[in-house]
Design a protein that fits this description.
globular, three-stranded antiparallel sheet, single chain, alpha/beta
Length: about 450
């Protein structure tokens, strides 16, 4: 990316657009009663995706932006699992007969930190309460540092098909700076064990922009990661927002790379991954050409949700656990964030909805445009408008802002098609922001564009 573009956009803050509107715009106008009504209105022919948030870790990684907490013993985990079971029963009872689950995702935190018998019971509860398709993808996030042989066996037994392993960086100096010591051999052993158990879908998550990170160490991390032969990799940029995550204050900001270095790291990692035979998927994922997500990208069916890029085309995402966010045709629902308050709400009411967002037709239109840009870097505005029985003019962004991006070579309007060139892909969120009616450019609630 040109240095002048880095200088111009380095301080812009924009959402990651895993949803539109972004979660800071949710309000308490959406309540548990709202959620109940939305669930009752579910089409029996709907397909479902389930997300379960497990907010526990053995130690805190200082770069982490997730909603999680450190636990020293199992009692809080068992209490949480009991609440999850209640929430699952409450939601399932409100749905009509018929909907089929196509995807299940366990996120965290560290889902594999659960007691093995607790995880087995949780999966059994899911299969009891919901119709899970025989070919459903069941995915789980894993911290290789805490993965036991018993848990690997349990994952295979309950039908897990995909494992996403957190790596971030294999550089020992970087690992020390983020409080995550994870030698390469530890990750290699986890991958080998998972494959031996029959779990063939392997994702590795990498991060650039971390403290003490360099272009050379980023490329070496890619080389080591690819040696494990994963199906998919993700390469995310570290978002330093200590105002939202106090533990990030443990990171010495003097050791963080500047915007120019971050761009250089990202570009070097992208080139290294693609040189080793992987296709670029969206703005931060990579996959082997024969992988389902690469095929979806090629066919134009790639989707984006709270877990990032996905092949999941389900009509609804039902989310369970503290801080979990779901999406229904009517809008978004978000659970209480704080763990004690979540447990109390579930005990009292069976649901823990704290806020959400009821989507208007205009919101759905703009969400479609933004998702197309994020997934394909190309959207036919007239075609999308026609699908919503309106005109292209109704969704055209501010002419001056669009002209500014076009002048920078970041986006071009060709007739009715808005296109983000390959060289400008790192700035696709800035292009998507043109269509965001809710964005407060001075709010500071989002990560930097670069």
């Amino acid at each position: 990316m040109r240095p002048d573009l880095v200088a111009k956009y380095r301080h812009q803050r924009v959402p990651r657009y895993t949803s539109y509107p972004a979660s800071p715009h949710f309000t308490d106008a959406v309540t548990a009663d709202t959620y109940r009504q939305w669930l009752r209105e579910t089409d029996p022919g709907s397909s479902l995706s389930l997300y379960l948030h497990l907010p526990f870790c053995k130690s805190m990684c200082w770069y982490c932006g997730c909603h999680t907490s450190v636990v020293r013993h199992e009692d809080p985990i068992w209490s949480y699992l009991a609440a999850l079971s209640t929430e699952l029963r409450s939601v399932a009872a409100l749905l009509p007969d018929g909907p089929v689950v196509r995807h299940v995702h366990f996120g965290g935190g560290t889902p594999t930190l659960l007691p093995v018998q607790g995880f087995r019971a949780l999966m059994a509860e899911l299969r009891t309460r919901f119709r899970i398709a025989p070919d459903a993808e069941i995915a789980i996030e894993i911290d290789p540092r805490t993965l036991s042989a018993d848990m690997v066996e349990a994952l295979a037994d309950v039908g897990v098909t995909r494992a996403s392993l957190g790596v971030q960086s294999f550089d020992p100096d970087v690992q020390a700076a983020i409080n995550r010591i994870q030698p390469f051999g530890m990750t290699e052993n986890a991958v080998t064990s998972l494959r031996a158990a029959g779990i063939q879908g392997i994702n590795l998550d990498l991060i650039y922009g971390l403290p003490r990170q360099s272009v050379a160490s980023c490329v070496e991390t890619v080389r080591q990661a690819i040696s494990l032969n994963p199906d998919r990799l993700s390469i995310f940029g570290y978002a330093h927002m200590p105002g939202f995550k106090a533990h990030q204050n443990r990171i010495d900001i003097e050791t963080l790379p500047d915007a120019d270095e971050r761009v250089a790291q990202l570009r070097a990692m992208e080139m290294a991954v693609m040189a080793l035979g992987y296709d670029r998927i969206g703005m931060d994922h990579f996959a082997r050409p024969d992988d389902a997500i690469a095929i979806a990208a090629e066919q134009g069916t790639l989707r984006r949700n709270f877990q990032g890029y996905t092949t999941d085309e389900s009509d609804m995402l039902l989310a369970f656990g503290a801080s979990a966010i779901g999406k229904l045709p009517q809008g978004y629902v978000a659970n209480i964030l704080a763990l004690p308050a979540y447990l109390k709400a579930i005990e009292a009411d069976g649901l823990a909805t704290a806020r959400g967002y009821r989507m208007s037709l205009d919101d759905k239109l703009r969400a479609t445009v933004i998702e197309a840009l994020m997934c394909r870097f190309d959207v036919d505005l007239a075609k999308v408008a026609a699908a919503f029985d309106t005109t292209q003019e109704a969704i055209m962004p501010d002419a001056r802002a669009l002209a500014d991006l076009a002048g920078d070579g970041v986006a071009h309007l060709h007739g009715t098609r808005l296109v983000v060139p390959d060289a400008a892909r790192p700035l696709v969120r800035s292009v998507a922001a043109l269509f965001d009616r809710h964005l407060d450019p001075d709010g500071g609630r989002h990560s930097k564009a670069i």
